[in-house]
Amino acid sequence: MREFNYYRAGSVRDAAKRLSASGNAMLLAGGMTLLPALKMRLNEPGELIDLADIGELKGIKLNRKGAQVGATTTHAEVAENVELRAAIPVLPHAAESIGDPQVRNRGTLGGSLANNDPAADYPAVALGLGATIITNKRKISADDFFTGMFETALGRGEMVTQVLFPIPQRAGYAIFPNPATRYALVGVCVAQFKTGVRVAVTGAGASVYRLEDFEDALTDEFSEVALDGLTASAASLNDDMHAGADYRAHLVGVMARRAVAMALE
Predict the structure, then answer these.
(1) CB burial string 72-97: b at 16+ within 10 A, e below
(2) Does 128 have pLDDT greater than 90?
């Protein structure tokens, strides 16, 4: 690692002010992606702003609008929350599939979304559920938040503070994990609302995305059978040492059907 300043922020306002003032600062939440990147010198910030002491970024609250989850709430806290398991079980189900116990006890919801790793689980669940990402400056719909590989709509001095997940009628998330890394070769979230069905895919392409033809079919009939004859295009999917584009396209269909089956259970 190269040398950098370390600053432990006391509030969201304090962290955002520090972030805006610096041209080369980064936020530290769980550090599950950032710290390895620093070690390999893929990131070389001038300052790390630690969010660990900011109480307003932690916690889970449920109301009529849905579940509001603080940005520094860990994967383990999401996975173990009894209220979430009753209201939106797909969210703790996805959280408990992330990495291993060490990662789940350090990694955070907001950190995962802000990082937007193309093989991460939370982006698919956030997009599938139509979540709203709340920052220190505004509210951003999940449809507008994920803009590309490791890229989001967050601007300078902007940080995720809360995420609002609406409560679906039913939802499921199925993942085909890489056996070594546990990241998703393909993960699919399917969520049914009164207004229709949303289907989001992670791991397959450069960033999380929705499948409109799958959504239309499931809106007409929410069943595995409704997806018969539908295939995902391999044209823009990842093709690497872990899996080819055609195989990933096949997995999208398989995981979508499994997600529907989970939702129906």
Answers:
(1) bbbbbbbbebeebeebbbbbbbbbeb
(2) yes
